[in-house]
Design a protein that fits this description.
It is a single chain. This protein has 123 residues and is mainly α. The chain has a domain at 48-122. The protein contains 3 helices and no strands. It starts with 32 loop residues before the first helix and ends with a helix.
Length: 123
């Protein structure tokens, strides 16, 4: 079977097989862009970030342990520094995702503009 002709963001060629006579797989076909965007947008918003939920739970547990004296406050402080680093990493992950979404939207707009210009030039 032939392979999708799209080049991924990392510069590699897409490895998905396509039917004979078809150039792009579903994920790279511009006709599916709005559906892909809808699916990924909804999936990101709908999925609870378990890591964030667990981290908040753990932070609360440390707060309680410091309050009741089962963890020394200086140990709790070090633990909170670690949680702060983790929360920053989660924020970077969120920004990375949002940047990817913006890149996809920009690519779609550029493609639409290119198509519009071609139509205008042809007539």
């Amino acid at each position: 079977m032939p392979q999708c002709s799209a080049i991924k963001r990392n510069g590699e060629r897409c490895r998905v097989s396509v039917e004979t006579g078809v150039e792009l797989c579903w994920a790279h076909d511009p006709r599916n862009a709005s559906e892909r965007k809808r699916i990924t947008s909804r999936a990101w918003k709908a999925r609870p970030n378990r890591e964030l939920v667990e981290t908040k739970h753990d932070i609360r547990a440390v707060v309680e342990a410091v309050r009741d004296g089962s963890i020394e406050s200086r140990v709790g402080g070090v633990v909170f520094q670690s949680y702060n680093t983790l929360l920053k990493a989660l924020d970077v992950e969120r920004r990375w995702y949002e940047t990817g979404q913006l890149e996809e939207r920009l690519e779609e707009l550029e493609e639409a503009l290119k198509t519009q210009r071609q139509k205008s030039a042809n007539g």
